[in-house]
Amino acid sequence: MTAGSEEQLHAFVGKMLGDLGGAFSVPTTRVGFRLGLFDALYRDGPATPKELAERTGALGERYVREWAMAQAANGFITFDAQENRFSLSPEQAMVFGVKDSPVYLAGAFDLVAAMIEGEAKVEQAIRSGTGVRWGDSAGCLFCSVGSFFRPTYVNSIVQSWIPALDGVEARLKEGIKVADIGCGVGFSTLLMAQAYPSSSFVGFDFHEPSIEEARQHAATHRSSGNVRFETSAAKSIGERDFDLITMYDCLHDMGDPRGCAAHIRSLIKTDGTWMVVEPIAEDRPEANLNPVGRLYYNASTMICLPTSLDQEVGEGLGAQAGEAKIAEVISGGGFSRVRRATQGPFNMVIEARP
């Protein structure tokens, strides 16, 4: 091995140590969320291991110290060796403490665990070329997906995504009929319903447990009477004359996105709008070899692709299909005007008009 190649090997091994350290952090970080350890540091400030154990319900102090040292080594919390105290910096708090922060990542760690839980089923699907039914690969995949997307939705739907659509926000304030298709556990639907009380909203999803969860969320948050949830596949929806139809991070998961686009066209008014939110992606695959693309390609392998291939047609767009492919699917359904209305670090928002 030459000196140059040996240096490259050491650099690559260093990268792998960093990546494996991140993987090793998943179970300890999830424990920290569930036991309220991050919350205690965020809510009550710096603490010694003894104080942190007492704050969180008399947990085992020795375990708490080891957990805290692990998080300090991760860079997730801060350790003051002289004071023997652990704390959250403002930046760390945005990720681990502030639940409505756009970068609160509790759901992301749960999603990783769900992907690992579904590994055997996805491996078998890869061997056979078949799919894995949504919700079957892990005990609460749909819950973790909902939690993963919630921070982005809380900070984007009403604040920037809907205002970027041509004339839609004003109509929502006046009162229109809206369908949120592929609503999952209902976070997106409820956020819109709460922001625009004069409009009526119905969330559709083909996964009954997700709809049950959405209804529970609606009851918990005491949502007004302008929202309801129904179990239905996108192509089976019978209601018509919607002024606005939204799809958040789900078109690429559908087995027949083209057939879905055509059916959406039949559900929407001639002056209506279809808002399609999809993972951010470039059209050239090689342009997606970056940190965001890395997350999406891995999630797509374990979740999005198996879900699509389990359904009729099984087109398998994947989470990194890119704007050109998504626009082609939408236009093929009978929409004449398709544009990117806005984007963020993780999503692009496509506006389609008949």
TrEMBL record:
InterPro entries, per database record: Methyltranfer_dom, SAM-binding_MTase, SAM-dependent_MTases_sf, WH-like_DNA-bd_sf, WH_DNA-bd_sf, WHD_Rv2258c
Domain named Methyltransferase: residues: 173-283
Pfam families xref list: Methyltransf_31, WHD_Rv2258c
Highest taxon, organism lineage: Bacteria
CDD domains documented for this protein: AdoMet_MTases
Any one GO molecular-function label of the UniProt entry: methyltransferase activity
One example of a Gene Ontology biological process annotation: methylation
Domain S-adenosylmethionine-dependent methyltransferase Rv2258c-like winged HTH: 30-95
Record key words, sorted: Methyltransferase, Transferase
SUPFAM superfamilies with a match to the protein in the record: S-adenosyl-L-methionine-dependent methyltransferases, Winged helix' DNA-binding domain
PANTHER family noted in UniProt: METHYLTRANSFERASE DOMAIN-CONTAINING PROTEIN, METHYLTRANSFERASE TYPE 11
Protein name, per record: SAM-dependent methyltransferase
Species annotation: Chelatococcus reniformis
Lineage of origin: Bacteria, Pseudomonadati, Pseudomonadota, Alphaproteobacteria, Hyphomicrobiales
